[in-house]
Each structure stands twice: as structure tokens, then as C-alpha cells.
Amino acid sequence: MTQVTPADRQALLNLILEVSFERKEVTLASGKKSNFYLDLRQTLMRPKGVSLAGRLVLDMLQSGPPVDAVGGMAVGAVPLVSAVLAAAANDPATDSLLGFFVRKQKKEHGLTKQIEGGFSTGQTVALVEDTTTTGGSTLDAVDLVEAAGGKVARVICLVDRGEGASEAFAKRGVSLEAVFRREDLAI
User: Fold this and answer.
1) Is 27 left (phi over 0), alpha (psi -120 to 50) or beta?
2) 103 domain residue, yes or no
3) CATH number of the CATH domain containing 97
4) Model confidence over 73-96: pLDDT tens digits?
5) Can you tell me the mean pLDDT for 18-29?
6) Where do runs of H (alpha helix) occur along the chain?
7) Assigned domain for 116 exists
């Protein structure tokens, strides 16, 4: 099992606050206005950030309902999926975990897939996201995975902005699990 400590969690939060968090008025992908901005790509594109995030999310995956694969909507979820898989490779109990990503649009060439990677019909999966606001893009991924014959057992994000995503997932029968919540950012 992945060994994560409170110090690991704090180190990731410190990095997020240092390189990904900014107090400023912004319009989010959901169209909502916010008084802070989170660019978690800045955290996930650093060795320490990607390593800590992968280990913390894998730890969450190991302490809940089992899944066959972890995935999410391209582009936001791809670094986090990769981080989780890299962490899983170090443990025989998790090294069979597969990863995938969901395209917003079906490819118009090749095999014309909308779900790429280690996904197949009948799998139980976890969807991951770097940050959630309303949950819109990940809810789209839920719909596409379910339409392809998968079962979404879990949704995990690094940061839940606390702006409706949790409630939206609850309406779909899935709990949103977050490594950090809005209050962790001291907002």
C-alpha cells in the first residue's frame, strides 16, 4: 500500500499555494466568476507536485471501493492520471491499474475513439480531475464512460472549489472525494 504522511499532504498543499493559487477575479470554464484562480497544471508539471499528487490520489483509491482503471477528461485529467499510474507501478497490489482519458469529441480518423487508453466495457473506474467547480466536464466523462459500458464508482479531485460539483455528483449517485477543499486554501 502507498505510504503517504500528513507531511506529504502538507507539502502538496504548500506547492499548490505557491505555484498554482492566485487571488484575482476570473471567469471560470463554468462561466462563473471567482475571486481566486487555480492553475493546477503548474503543480502537476513539477516533479515534486506530480509525485505527491499521484501518491495521495492512489492512497485514496486504495482506501475505497476497488477500481480497474483511472481516467478523466482530456486535457485536465491527463497529468493526474499519469501521476497515479506512476505511483501505482511501485506497488504489486496496484501495478495492474489501467489509465485512460476521454476526449471531448470523437476522433474523426484512425479508430475514431472517444475513450483512449486502458478502458474496456465492463470496467469499474474512478474519474479524476485536478480541480472541480460545477463538475461539468467530469460529468460529461461520466456520461461517456457509462455509455461505453463502464461503471463510474468514484470521482476524485485534487481541489474541490466548493461551488456545486459535490452536489452535482451526488445527484448522479457518486460522491466527490477531494484531496483538498476550498477551506484548505484559506479562502
Assistant:
1) beta
2) yes
3) 3.40.50.2020
4) 998 899 999 999 999 998 899 999
5) 91
6) 6-19, 41-44, 47-62, 78-88, 136-147, 165-171
7) yes
